[in-house]
Amino acid sequence: MGVQRPVHKDAKGVAAVVSAANAFLNTLTSDQQAETLLDFTQANATAWSNLPCGSSCRPGIQTGSLSDDQLAALKNVLKVALGSGKGTGYEHVLETLKADDVLASAQSTSSSSDAPTDGASDASSADPSATASSTATDAPTGTPPSGGTGGGAGGGYGSGIYFLAFLGTPSATGTWQLHFGGHHLAVDITYKDGKVAGASPYFTGVEPTTWTDDDGTTYSPLAKFRDGLLKLTGSLSTEQLAEAKLSESFSDVLLGPGKDGDFPETKEGIKVSELSPKQKKLVLEAIHPWVANVDDATAKQLMKTYARELDQTYVSYSGGTALDTQGDYVRIDGPSVWIEFVCQNGVVYRDQVHYHTVYRDHTRDYGNEFSFS
What pLDDT score does 117 carry? Predict the structure, then answer.
């Protein structure tokens, strides 16, 4: 397909990210800087996971090891890179961190009489209709390590067990990557010559899917992701649904961690060119929440690309379309864009489903810096 052009042409925005990155680095000791500044290698770039496996599967400096000032500077890097308004990637990161604290609290209070460790939300903040399991079952993609909000290589759940790395030196001229993640989150934004060269892969999931905090605020981090897909599949006629149905079943996303470059050779489902103008608009609206994980200018450029390629894009599903039962699965696959959303049975909240999703780009993952053929 040839060399892909950078998707973001606003060097001023990237300069702000570089400035925030340097401000964060300046708060760190030399040892902490060594943890954070790593080489932009394929091994480091692809080291992300959907499991609560701590530093054993992720590079970078751990959020729980930082002082308040250092943590504030780290969050400012994410705010500048991901956007700070409602519905942006930064807001989603904060809600994902909150979800992990709820999960840590639920697990720790259901497995022992000890109170949750610092940083965990009170168990009562979880959705009262959800019951935490006293013995977590194996996750479909592996057995999560035990632990609450404690950190270190042992893993576990909690906002203190997320990791930030700069792969390559943050710069307005070189090639480098902002690499941030933890359980149920992987953010990978690649910069090249002062421009964003790729905003994927981007993995996000959540358990519990919704909860109400002590202050009465209800959080549903993946609601807008799910609801866009529900509107899309809900618009399909009986005949269109039959054409979109996949013969395979899915217990997880197909292109999760360790599956780089494994795009199916043949696209499946219903081709968007067969849909009505209104349905085509719903496809673009369904794509947007994933693309909004990056700054607004880059997201706008990516959406323009995906709009141009819309007629060559396919929509498919497996299981049911309600996205409320184990195995319910929806995919959008275009010349560039790739999105998956799947429901799994809960690991800690066993009477709920939990969500896994991934956004990739056939030619822009990791800024197209690596070959996975």
Answer: 33
- 29 contacts: CB under 8 Å, gap ≥ 6: none
Question: How do residues 300-322 score in pLDDT, each as one tens digit?
Answer: 999 999 999 999 999 999 999 99
First to last CA, the chain: 14
Chain mean pLDDT for the chain? 87
Stretches in the chain below the pLDDT threshold 70:
1-11, 84, 110-155, 373
Of 359, 356, 49, whose CA–CA distance to 183 is shortest?
A: 49
DSSP characters over 90-155: HHHHHHHHHHHHHHHHHHHHHH-SSPPPTTPPPGGGB-TT--B-SSPPPBTTBPPPP-SS--STT-
Tell me what pLDDT residue 7 has: 56
Q: Are strands 337-345 and 329-333 parallel, antiparallel or unpaired?
A: antiparallel
Neighbours of 212 (CB within 10 A): 15
Distance CA 193, CA 171 (A): 8
- Per-residue pLDDT, 6: 52
Separation between Cα atoms, residue 345 and residue 287, nearest integer Å? 24
20 touches 80 (CB < 8 A)? yes
Q: How far apart, in whole angstroms, are the C-alpha atoms of residue 104 and residue 317?
A: 32
Instruction: Give the number of other CB atoms < 10 A from CB of residue 35.
Output: 18
The total number of residues written for the chain in this structure: 373
Q: 3-class SS at 187?
A: strand
pTM over 0.70: yes
CA distance linking residue 158 with residue 362, whole number of Å: 32
* pLDDT tens-place string over residues 76-117: 999 999 976 777 899 999 999 999 999 999 988 765 433 333
For 235, the 3-state DSSP assignment is: coil
Name, in order, each residue with C-beta under 8 angstroms of 154's C-beta and a sequence gap of 6 or more: 54, 56, 145, 147
Distance separating alpha carbons of residues 106 and 122, to the nearest angstrom: 8
Amino acid identity for residue 76 in this structure: N
